[in-house]
Amino acid sequence: MSEVYRTFSGKTNEPGSHLASCVAVRRFSEIHARKTLLILIGFLLLTYMVHGFGKAFDEDEFQSMLLGINIAQGKLLYTEMWDNHGPLLSLILAGMYRLVPWQSHWVMLLGRLLILLCLLGTLYIYYRLAEEIFPQSSFFPELACFFLLLSELTALAAVEIRPDNPMNLIWTSSLLVWFRAWNSRKVPFFFWSGLLLGCAFWCSLKALVLGGAVGAMFVTGMILEKRILWKPLLTFGVGTVFAPLGMVLFLAAQGNLEAFWTTYVLQNADRLHESFFIAFFLVPYWAPLGGSFLYFSLFYAARKVFRKETVPERILLLLACSFFLLIQYCFLLPTHHEQSTLPFLMTGTLVQAWVFLLLFQRFETARYSIFRRLQPGRAHVAALVLFLLVSTAGLHQWFWIKSVEKIKWADGLLERIDPGEYVFDGIGLPLFRSHPFYYVSWVNALRARLRDHSLGIDVPAELDRKDVRYVLRDFRVESMGASVDAFIRTNYHPLNDNLLWAAGKVVPEEKHQEHQKVDIRIAGKYYWRSSEGELFIGGKPASNPVELGDGSYVVRWKGEGDLILSVAPPEQWAGVDTERSFRLLKREGYEKADHSNSMLQ
Question: CA dist 128 to 172, 345, 357, 492, Å?
Fold first, then answer.
């Protein structure tokens, strides 16, 4: 540790017994600091296990799992199912589902287990990367891992079933090999770094941005070396070609290369861009503690560079990479989500750990004994663990178990919807029922194109043509536009389950008109209910349920009250109060209050 602080301050020590004793004390203190950090990291990993299985599922996670299940069942990605990500995670999930063909939404927890293993692998490689970045400190890798796990951004996105997490594992591996190549000056190592980074194209188009970040490190390295590093740059570039080329050949052999180009490249490139102001301040918004300290560390390190103070070479390279990733996140990415910050987090937290050591060099002498007091087994460590327990409970909310409720609710949909029935929704739920469209997950960009009539699909016409009898009115379906909303309100009836509607009609009673005309757009077997239990269709008594095809029918029923038709049995219908309030809202032309979307928040 003494050498670390001499690097920062420019001081030199003269030999002597006092110096030898101080160095011994510091090494003793570093050992205990390292052990203390390992205890805290172990505790954080335990909270991540709880958080990983208990965190509420994001909509994109169901999309990823649905794609994997459909591939396992023989469907072709991009041709029969839309996706704007690379094929790697979908293929891995398909292999997992072939091994465990579990017809229940509990399979989502298997996906989360896979991602947790991915997180552990990323953390191990990140630890080795930290050793390459700053070998002068004996506990710098532990400190960097601690900051990475403590960040709210890691807790938000690194446990979710999404392609960004295997891409982050690949990105960290590529960085590790790159810095080993830089430190050893072995040019062939740059090839393997490029080869690994090329594999990130199998996950996401964001790999282009990661390539630009490595380019920023090469440019910084050339400035430091005062020469053109054409051999390492060329070797790295050649390595990046093989994995994308292999992906193209693989998709061409499957016959879905053209569809892949449309969804993976073109539809990702023409998305509307959000503002820089929103992007920059979203990071501290999502991560008040970790994001703020991360920004502070980067700008503090940049300040030292501009003041021409001593900064280690590898920290300079990481700083250039981090600022490039931050700039691309704010300006190049069309949309800004938590998972998009993960590559930036991997480099930024290393700079953050270095700044932390720099700011605490005041403990080099007598006050440095604070670390010596943090010995495993002492009350100080127990107090730190307790503090970490309370703080991460607030920052990460790892104690909040939400996934079980969502799984039970989704499995309940399987009991209500018969196999073979189509379900129209915006997320891909339920996983084990058919969905009527090529677009299994209606992300923001797709819904925007649908509202602008540029998607080339007529949703109401397709619902009518395919006789889709069930609609899950999640927040994505609610925002598809007026025509979709009007068709659902006219041809579907709410059930007593959150969000689920079935094909049906509420025919209001008209006291001065004995016969009424009813238009049926969704063919099926309809249950009906009238006040006196009699219904006549075309002048003939109707059975209950009655088979109705597409068309117009003249109906008559006895008694007061409205006639209710639904393909779902009456015990599944919404309550009387819900029916009455919805009917009044529909008559008055108001939007239905969204009181049931809480299950998908």
Answer: 10, 16, 18, 57
